[in-house]
Amino acid sequence: MSYKDYLMVFLAIQYLIDEQSVICRMGNLIQTNASKEGSLYYAGEGFSMQKATVLLQVKAEAQIQPVFMNLETFNNNNEKFILGDDQFGYPINYKGVLGY
After folding, report:
1. CA-to-CA distance for 95 and 62, rounded, in angstroms?
2. What's the rounded Cα separation, in Å, for the pair 26 and 56?
3. Which pLDDT does position 66 carry in this prediction?
4. Which are the contacts of 93, defined by CB distance < 8 A and separation ≥ 6?
5. pLDDT at 80
6. How far is the C-alpha of 90 from the C-alpha of 96, rounded, in Å?
7. Tell me, what's the pLDDT at 21?
8. Which residues have CB under 8 Å from 97's CB, separation 6+?
9. Cβ neighbours of residue 55 under 8 Å, at least 6 residues apart?
């Protein structure tokens, strides 16, 4: 395992033990990095995580195959199509943005 892998394992274990302290620590690190001039994520002097706006973007692609049903396959335009060899099942594409 690489150093990065070990860090991810330790973070996962700590998260299971004390979720709140891990979240607070991550917030502190983000605030510290965003306050450093010249940083890739520089947000200005006096940046505060408590006053920051959070946006989260999720993109997911999946293919689902019904187990007990033999249904004809239709795309988003209600057009029938045949699954190719590289397709597992019904394609589902999702993209969403959440902010608070």
Report:
1. 12
2. 16
3. 64
4. 60, 61
5. 63
6. 20
7. 87
8. 55, 56, 57, 58
9. 97, 98, 99
Q: What's the chain's Rg over C-alpha atoms?
A: 22
Per-residue tokens: 29 = 């690190």
User: Residue 70's Cα: distance from chain center in Å?
Assistant: 33
Residue 100's Cβ-count burial label (10 Å; 0-12, 13-18, 19+) is: exposed
Say what the pLDDT of residue 59 is. Answer: 93
Contact between 8 and 16 under an 8 Å Cβ cutoff? The reply is no
The CA-atom distances, in angstroms, between 31 and each of 1, 7, 9, 72, 81 are 30, 20, 23, 52, 50
| DSSP line for 60-91 | EEEEE--SS--PPPB-TTS-B----TT--SEE
**Mean pLDDT per 10-residue interval, the chain, length 100 residues:** 83 86 85 86 84 86 68 62 63 84
49 and 41 Cβ atoms separated by less than 8 Å = no
**DSSP state, residue 49:** G
pLDDT at 27: 84
